[in-house]
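wait is this the right file?? whatever heres the structure
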């Protein structure tokens, strides 16, 4: 079930209403059943895969906590991580591994038996795998008590608002809340509904309308002029942002209506003045996951320069691989890692200090430079393979004077401009809280305009959320 569907329009109010009507002791079961129904709308049988990872990490958490021996604890942790990641490997990475092993066997002349297994990737597998892993790691570190209630733990992994595309929650935040009795509050309802409306607007009006033009460019970049391709790349930066930001906003909003607080996943990333700042503002739940569980485990920045560079590149390569079993994603991640390393080294050479006052004009150009860099690197993310990446960049330089039929409707520029202006008001703010501080008339005008545009200007193709594929 997707948020921008008729089914969800019926599902959400029914589930929420029953949640508040039921006695507290039955609510966990109600939400768990609702989450199962939500997930089974995609491919019903794949819920057993999700159930497998839940059982593995639930048992591992209890064994880790019960053990008094550190080596035994670590053994249980390793078994849990390997078992959970094995499920992810089989369904997401086996074909990728198999194809590359076959290429290597042909190149170096060793025998590798060709094995073909084609699975449809379970929706949100990477997201709930990482959420499950964060639980056992936190139990191992002694920062989280093992959850003895199997139903509550299952709900922690399957909580429907963020089950499919995050945010990836830590147990200290979500698991604790699932044991608390939530009472209906109008403030939660208004804040949550604002986020849902905002998320639907930027997804269905901005992202989906931009997607039409992005698809035209990537279908065959060689037939489009330099200006058209650059427009398409610019559009994709906002398509993926509004698409994923929209989903996260709806997820946070759905949870908020019931009284649950999920972490913010975006903080106006395109107003970042550096690549480092961009990654503190983009997909925060994932970047903080890699920081806490991979980067710090490798030694972070408390190591020699060469080892620090290695740590950064490993983290970003894994981040790219997490997004997809394809070399374009790995190279996309490495590109960001290299950019971050170069940026850090350059700042050291130039002596750029945090305490030094930076002129506004310089900040402006840093934002433009960072956005432009991120936009070009997005090509690796959007392209289906390296051949298409090459085609896009070649066409940018070769098709300067080419005439094409690429035409953008004025309303698309208007929607995009409105979002950029709105986003500029939301620097270090969340839409629901910012909007709640506005006066009655402008606030309800916002609501009316967004509802009207969702109804009238939503793209008829109803594009799926981009991050569903991960």
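ok assuming it is, sequence goes like this
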């Amino acid at each position: 079930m997707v948020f921008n569907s008729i089914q969800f329009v019926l599902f959400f109010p029914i589930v929420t209403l029953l949640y508040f009507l039921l006695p507290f002791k039955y609510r966990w079961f109600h939400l768990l059943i609702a989450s199962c129904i939500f997930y089974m709308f995609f491919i019903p049988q794949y819920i057993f895969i999700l159930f497998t990872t839940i059982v593995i990490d639930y048992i591992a958490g209890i064994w880790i906590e019960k053990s008094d021996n550190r080596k035994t604890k670590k053994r249980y942790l390793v078994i849990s991580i390997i078992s959970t990641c094995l499920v992810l490997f089989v369904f997401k990475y086996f074909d990728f591994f198999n194809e590359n092993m076959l290429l290597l066997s042909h190149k170096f002349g060793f025998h590798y038996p060709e094995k073909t297994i084609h699975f449809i990737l379970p929706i949100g597998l990477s997201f709930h795998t990482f959420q499950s892993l964060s639980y056992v790691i936190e139990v191992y570190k002694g920062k989280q008590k093992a959850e003895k209630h199997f139903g509550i733990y299952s709900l922690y992994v399957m909580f429907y608002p963020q089950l499919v595309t995050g945010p990836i929650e830590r147990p200290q935040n979500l698991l604790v809340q699932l044991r608390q009795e939530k009472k209906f509050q109008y403030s939660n309802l208004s804040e949550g509904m604002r986020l849902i409306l905002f998320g639907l607007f930027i997804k269905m009006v901005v992202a989906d309308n931009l997607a039409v033009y992005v698809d035209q460019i990537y279908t065959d970049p060689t037939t489009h002029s330099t200006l058209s391709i650059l427009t398409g790349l610019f559009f994709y930066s906002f398509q993926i942002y509004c698409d994923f930001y929209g989903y996260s906003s709806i997820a946070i909003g759905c949870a908020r209506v019931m009284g649950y607080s999920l972490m913010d996943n975006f903080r106006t990333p395109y107003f970042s003045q550096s690549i480092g700042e961009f990654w503190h503002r983009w997909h925060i739940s994932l970047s903080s996951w890699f920081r806490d569980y991979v980067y710090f485990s490798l030694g972070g920045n408390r190591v020699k320069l060469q080892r620090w560079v290695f740590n950064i590149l490993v983290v970003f390569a894994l981040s790219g691989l997490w997004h997809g079993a394809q070399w374009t994603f790995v190279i996309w991640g490495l590109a960001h890692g290299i950019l971050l390393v170069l940026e850090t080294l350059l700042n050291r050479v130039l002596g750029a200090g945090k305490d030094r006052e930076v002129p506004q004009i310089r900040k402006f150009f840093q934002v433009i430079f960072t956005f432009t860099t991120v936009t070009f690197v997005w090509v690796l993310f959007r392209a289906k393979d390296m051949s298409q990446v090459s085609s896009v960049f070649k066409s940018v330089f070769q098709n300067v004077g080419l005439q094409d039929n690429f035409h953008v409707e004025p309303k698309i520029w208007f929607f995009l401009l409105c979002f950029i202006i709105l986003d500029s008001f939301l620097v270090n703010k969340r839409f629901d809280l910012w909007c709640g501080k506005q006066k009655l008339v402008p606030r309800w005008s916002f609501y009316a305009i967004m509802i009207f545009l969702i109804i009238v200007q939503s793209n008829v193709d109803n594009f799926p959320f981009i991050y569903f594929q991960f």
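The chain is about 70% helix and 0% strand. so i think its the right one actually
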